Amino acid sequence: MRALTLHAPAKVNLHLRIRGRRTDGLHEIETLFQKIDLGDTLSLAEAESDALEIARSPWELGPLKENLVWRALQALRRHVAFPPVRLRLTKGIPPGAGLGGGSSDGAAALRGIVRLFGLRVAEGTLAAIARALGADVPFLLSPASCAIGRGIGDELEPVSHRCRWRLVLVYPGHPSPTADAYRLWQSVPLPGNSPTLAALVAALRSGDADAAAAAIHSDFAPSLFSRYPSMARAAQTLRVLGCSAVWPTGSGSTVVGLCPAGWSGMEALAVSLPESHWTAWAAMCGDDESSPQTAGNKEKPRGAGPGA
Predict the structure, then answer these.
(1) Which fold does the domain 3-158 belong to in CATH?
(2) 219 is catalytic
(3) Catalytic pick from 11, 35, 37, 105?
(4) CATH code reported for the domain at 166-295
(5) N- to C-terminal Cα separation, the chain
(6) How confident is residue 159, by pLDDT bands cut at 50, 70 and 90?
(7) Distances 89 to 39, 72, 99, 101 between C-alpha atoms, Å
(8) CB crowding 22-39: b at 16 or more within 10 Å, else e
(9) Are 51 and 168 in contact (CB under 8 A)?
């Protein structure tokens, strides 16, 4: 029986600028995606009938038929024939956290099924399926560890760089719905003279970690930190503990801190988590697949964090 297991990596947005709203209602963005070593695990095996099982998740995920793993399976089956497959998903990425967990699961399903059965699928077909599943799926399907995303995030330009960063991620126990984040963004003015994506990419390519850290930016930061006291509190905690840059990834709710060299604040962060259902992880930018450190208990009660 054919079987394999894949890592589905999370992503962070090192830069996110919103360029405006399109006629189809979606937003044009300019972002820099970066994969990290935190992730989910997807196991695939040939079976008698298609099936999806959630092996473990401390978070509520919704109906299985709406899961991007299942949707990816069904979408691929409309384009190419392959035997039934059983998929088993183990979650390490919270939903609605800005880390691309569901999108990465969908990308892993596409990649895994093609590999499991040795399918021949045109690159354009696979890209179209990925784009239909979600704006982050094309990047998470791609082999790039880092890439500029334009359009709705699906127009990719891989970026090679020399900076290897340690990050700390704080999830305040509640999601931040993307549609709500865009509505909030429209209501809060942005500060002028914010860093540019070009400055960040140039600093990363030259290996200037300090300049790159100074160019990290998210247009969502002012509105999300205003709307969610939990996120603002997470950001303040990371600043106090010495992170050199602090920002929300994607549309939230995870807050990311860039750790300076020699940073050893995970134990202090675990003590500082204000609520039992908050979680923090240490992660690395790049392809290192080692298990991330965790502060707090990942098997958390479900529910909203303070201020949600």
Answers:
(1) Ribosomal Protein S5; domain 2 (3.30.230)
(2) no
(3) 11
(4) 3.30.70.890
(5) 46
(6) very high
(7) 11, 13, 16, 11
(8) eeeeebebbbbbbbbbbb
(9) no
Write the secondary structure of the chain as one string of H (helix), E (strand) and C (coil): CCEEEEEEEEEEEEEEEEEEECCCCCEEEEEEEEEEEEEEEEEEEECCCCEEEEEECCCCCCCHHHCHHHHHHHHHHCCCCCCCEEEEEECCCCCCCCCCHHHHHHHHHHHHHHHHHCCCCCHHHHHHHHHHHCCCHHHHHCCCCEEEEECCCCEEEECCCCCCCEEEEEECCCCCCHHHHHHHHHHCCCCCCCCCHHHHHHHHHHCCHHHHHHHCEECCHHHHHHHCHHHHHHHHHHHHCCCCEEEECCCCCCEEEECCCCCCCHHHHHHHCCCCCCEEEEEEECCCCCCCEEECCCCCCCCCCCCC
Task: Identify whether 11 is a catalytic site residue.
Answer: yes
Return the closest-CA partner of residue 187 out of 148, 223, 137, 139: 223
Q: Can you give the residue ranges of every domain in the chain?
A: 3-158, 166-295
d(CA 39, CA 106) in angstroms, rounded, equals 13
Token couple for 225:
């930190």
CA 143 to mean position of chain CA atoms: 15
- Say which of 37, 40, 105, 136 is annotated catalytic: 136
| pLDDT tens digits for range 248-269 | 999 999 999 999 888 888 888 8
75-85 per-position pLDDT tens digit: 999 999 999 99
